[in-house]
Amino acid sequence: MKKADLKKDLKKIVTGDVLDSPMILDKFSTDASIFKITPQVVVQPKNVSDIQKLVGFVNEQKDQKLSLTARTAGTDMTGGPLNRSIILDFTKYFNKVKEVGHGHAITEPGVYYRDFERQTLRKGLFLPSYPASRELCAIGGMVSNNSGGEKTLAYGKTEKYVAEMKMVLRDGNEYVFEPLNHKQLKQKMALQNFEGEIYRKMFELVSNNIDLIEKERPTVSKNSAGYAIWNGWKNEVFDLTKIFVGAQGTLGIMTEVKLNLIHPKHYSKLLVIFVDDLKVLSLVNNKLLALKPESLEFFDYYTLKLGARFFFWKYFWQFIPEAFLALQKMSLPKMVMLAEFTGDTKEEVEIKVHEARCIISRFNLPTRITSAGKDTEKYWQIRRDSFSLLRQRVKDKKTIPFIDDLIVAPDKLPEFLPALEKILKPYKKMLDYTIVGHVGDGNLHIIPLGKLEDQKTREAIPKVAREVYKLIGEYGGSITAEHNDGLIRTPYLNHMFSAKMIKIFEEVKKIFDPDNIFNPGKKVGMTEKKAFGFLKKE
Description:
Elements: H1 3-13, E1 17-19, H2 22-27, E2 41-44, H3 48-60, E3 68-71, E4 86-89, E5 97-100, E6 104-107, H4 113-121, H5 139-145, H6 152-155, E7 162-168, E8 174-177, H7 182-189, H8 194-208, H9 210-215, E9 233-234, E10 237-238, H10 241-244, E11 253-260, E12 267-275, H11 281-289, E13 295-300, H12 301-311, H13 320-329, E14 335-343, H14 346-360, E15 367-369, H15 374-384, H16 386-393, E16 398-399, E17 403-407, H17 413-424, E18 432-438, E19 443-450, H18 455-474, H19 486-489, H20 499-512, H21 528-532
Parallel strand pairs: 2-4, 3-4
Antiparallel strand pairs: 1-2, 5-6, 6-11, 7-8, 7-11, 9-10, 12-14, 12-15, 13-14, 13-18, 16-19, 17-19, 18-19
Helix pairs in contact: 8-20, 12-15, 12-16, 17-18
């Protein structure tokens, strides 16, 4: 269907905005990934009825191969919200927090997390799974990607906090999904409509493959790869929200979500550890984990150098201790670890952080307990802003996120990191890189820097991806802990899962979306060749 005809037809059926200007299409053709796909049209639905009509329209135009991809803030690093057909932008009209109650909030997907948190904190509550991009990201993306961040170590990912979801499915109806006991499940399965069909088929799929599903359940603490079918039937509860969370909008369109919230701790203290010898990393990690820090993060020396360079004048006086340390050692540390301890009283936190420092001193590693304010802030800014810092400040190269979210068991890191270095070293000239992440989980964010316009670099990316993901599989890890599959990792799921398990993922997609109208090519159905055909030119 021609773009002009598509726009004309869509304007007839929706009350929201239908946009196709070159500027708009260019904006929605990219996210934070290395891909670019220009859509035919962008629709900003005004209400649920608009979404239902769009689903009906796409179903009627099967010969046109139209599809719908939901999008919110566009901070995704995987190409998840990119589509050459119809993009649904939820940030203009689906942007309301409907309720903040006792321990929960009900919100639309287009609400930016920063605005959501502002409202929840007024009630003394927050959603602790926020990612590093929390000032930029939106709730819809967090749920669709099953996002996590620095507090995931203590509190878990987004999946843990989703209590209820409203979804428009491929029949055009909006349904409410929530955890069901045996009796409630039987009632749903007895329904003679699409909802009943969904429950019958999903229950049968899980029941018939329970041994395989359990066998292939990722053993690391965080995973966003594949459909989380192993969480759908747990502790005598059948919960399809566990499948929708992290599905990247491939099973339906989310219109509303109810999130459980928690009370934040009142006091915190940061212990900074400067690590020169990676051989002691797992020992240090284990000792710190035993003290139950709320966060245990890290960044490498390159990130520290870059952060110190660009934040030096903002935090001039606060960098003096690090400057003295660098002069004494005549070099920057290989890694900086951030252990944040929290509690309900100052005394509780002080005891924890001093105990941690005492234990770490046995390894002869320099440490600092930061003071409140900018002294602590500078470390968190370097860690949280590492990706945007690289993207904005390194002028001759661009960030190329494609191995940006791997995870292995923390105790395997001292062995895994040299093996990873061995893979990356031959490509160092074209793909320089920084490492940050959640060391307490074994979750590394590796951000290569390079020139996408260079043909050798473009050819190297899939080669490196194959080798790195193969290595992760050998170490029993996950190729994505929290960023999800998208275009960039869907082709490599075979490094984590068997062919039989991937068939089950395909069956999940078929049950919910047999005509492939919801965000095609993500989670299933994407090849390496096709994915890299969407690679940006520069």
